């Protein structure tokens, strides 16, 4: 039986920063990614420490009352519930008026970047919460995202922390497949 791609899972990371060369290598792997109509609309912004800590605090101050309120409280108490200690977060964004699948292009590119990071022995975790929180008032601007762009996905990346023996991927059933012949 053929082996599938390497197991990708949320990994703990050390706070040791990656070099700009390593970050650029991860991002540049996306040059070969598929893109609707070959438009290649994806732009990247790399957020790093100490900015990430300041950014999390700024987000906590604008989270509206509701189900996300506990996250704001945890952030303000110094818990890194947003970035999980990662030294960098790569943000994939594109102009909102791109006519052909900017969201798909961003996800395809970020997935390729994640696989490259895993192949290099780095730790990664998708930061979906940030994709939502960056839409709060003033947050895109603070992160340096152009006004006419929309953020589609965010990936935290760093050196893998030592393995913790009890952490393992959740068991998963095969995905549903329908064949039409």
From TrEMBL:
Cite the Nitroreductase domain residue spans from the record. 14-159
- Name the InterPro entries for this protein: Nitroreductase (IPR029479), Nitroreductase-like (IPR000415), Nitroreductase/BluB (IPR050627)
Provide the coiled-coil residue spans: none
Q: Which GO terms describe its molecular function?
A: oxidoreductase activity
Output the superkingdom of the source species: Eukaryota
| PANTHER family linked to this entry | NADPH NITROREDUCTASE, NITROREDUCTASE FD-NR2
Please identify the protein, giving its name as recorded.
Nitroreductase domain-containing protein
Give the source species: Kipferlia bialata
């Amino acid at each position: 039986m053929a082996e599938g791609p390497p197991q990708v899972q949320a990994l703990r990371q050390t706070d040791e920063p990656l070099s700009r060369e390593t970050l650029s290598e991860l991002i540049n792997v996306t040059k070969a990614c598929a893109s609707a109509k070959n438009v290649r609309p994806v732009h990247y912004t790399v957020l790093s420490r100490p900015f990430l800590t300041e950014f999390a605090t700024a987000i906590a101050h604008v989270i509206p009352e509701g189900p996300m309120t506990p996250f704001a409280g945890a952030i303000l108490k110094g818990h890194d519930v947003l970035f999980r200690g990662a030294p960098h977060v790569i943000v994939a964004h594109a102009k909102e008026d791109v006519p052909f699948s900017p969201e798909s292009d961003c996800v395809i590119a970020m997935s390729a970047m994640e696989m490259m990071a895993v192949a290099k022995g780095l730790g990664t975790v998708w930061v979906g919460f940030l994709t939502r929180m960056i839409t709060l008032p003033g947050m895109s601007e603070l992160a340096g995202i152009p006004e006419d762009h929309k953020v589609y996905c965010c990936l935290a990346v760093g050196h893998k922390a030592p393995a913790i023996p009890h952490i393992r991927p959740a068991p998963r059933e095969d995905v549903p497949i329908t064949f039409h012949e």
